[in-house]
Amino acid sequence: MNQGMQPLVEMIGIEKRFPGVHALNQCKFELLPGEIHALVGENGAGKSTLMKILTGVYQKDEGQMLVKGTEVDFTHTRAAQNMGISMIHQELNLMPDLTVAQNIYIGREPRAGLKLFVNEKKLNQQAQQLFDRLHIKLDPRTKVSELTVAQQQMVEISKALSFKSEVLIMDEPTAALTEVEIHDLFTIITQLRDQGVGIVYISHRMEELKKITNRITVMRDGTYIDTVPTAEVTIDQIIAMMVGREIYSTAQVRQEQGEQESVLEVKHLKRGNAVKDVSFTLRKGEILGFAGLMGAGRTEVARAIFGADRMEAGEIYIHGKIARIRSPHDAVQYGIGYLSEDRKRYGLLVDMDVKTNIAIATYQKFRNKAGWMHDSTIQDEASQYVTKLKIKTPSVDQKLKFLSGGNQQKVVISKWLKRDCDILIFDEPTRGIDVGAKSEIYKLLNDLAAQGKSIIMISSELPEILRMSHRIMVMCEGRITGELISSEATQESIMKYATMRIG
What we know:
- Helices cover about 35% and strands about 25% of the residues.
- By secondary structure, the protein is an alpha/beta fold.
- It folds into three domains: about 10-245, Rossmann fold (3-Layer(aba) Sandwich); about 260-335 and about 420-503, P-loop containing nucleotide triphosphate hydrolases (Rossmann fold, 3-Layer(aba) Sandwich); about 350-420, no CATH class.
- The strands form five sheets. A six-stranded mixed β-sheet has the order 6-9-10-3-11-12, sandwiched between helices. It has a six-stranded mixed β-sheet with strand order 18-19-20-15-21-22, with helices on both faces.
- The protein starts with 8 loop residues before the first strand and ends in a 5-residue tail after the last helix.
């Protein structure tokens, strides 16, 4: 980091108001050449709003913004891009029917002949050269619709870096990545930093900040709190500045349960190359963690149990009796709820209101004999869950897309609680949500387990797996390679099994 050099970006006294909301109040931010600068805060703290002003999505109401010493006021994103500022958004913004290469270079494609046609060969070569530089294993000719969430995130990162930006804003870039993929990304980020690129790094993963950033700026409730050198502050101090209260975020030792009633038993489950002969038992009141690298088959196991994907072989027993699950509807009838890792694609109706999303799995219960809906009953019961789970929303009539990620996740949980499921499968339950919301989700899961609910929790965050699980199943290449009880599990032992190939 070049402390004595002119800043790439200076934001001073930034104000932004929306109807009824003072989103930013006298905020400031500075980014130096060759610096990785973390911008942290709970959802709603103003981080994204501040960065959207820097990238021309929003215009500031007051304040001053300078790029390399020149005062600017971007009225659109292209103006910011022309000044060497790019942003990788947390929400994927790719066109599924186009190839990877077409998505990266859309509007900038190399042309052939009289420039009437796209030179597909050269386009794919450019994308491949970019992937080689980033150590990404992707075929540029693959359609985006065929990619996993992690692969799509890597395409977004590649697209942003293809502009050769001097300022790169990364909003939760590792949210959908495995430890191996994160390591590769950090290698690229470090290379960019060494080349003088300034990187704004927005992440809720506190351990990442200590590994890769030089300075940390903290925001809370639309205001600037402080900027500190990363080496001089602890994770607990960062969190305290973010939330204004103490949150227990480190791993905790869980009490051994002893032998409890078997609620779900899976025997010799198979589905293609993704799931190869998986067997395990889930007990009453247990949180069973599933760990492993991306592609290990954890989500595929969950989808097969829930009937979202048809299993090719194996048996599922619920309370000791064989269960015939051929569709999600069947699974729900057996008392199974599934919270997908891609909640906006499979778990939520983002253009519908909160109450509809909470009631959607139990709509038949709200109909009278004539088939009419009891709207007032839906309103009342949805309001109870908003209160119970502390969902931050103006009302149950608010459209879901206007809620933060953590509050959206609570709405999904409410949907399955309303259904009164005995077995809940949580796939990456805290992905992309802040430490405060994470703490509330953790408390909710513990409360559910204490009430006798049985939970399968899939997570790529090892501290989360260690903190929350009574037992941990570790997968590698479609098989369970290890089973650990909480008292003997460590990040090292999990990674040992997560990289252990069998057969």
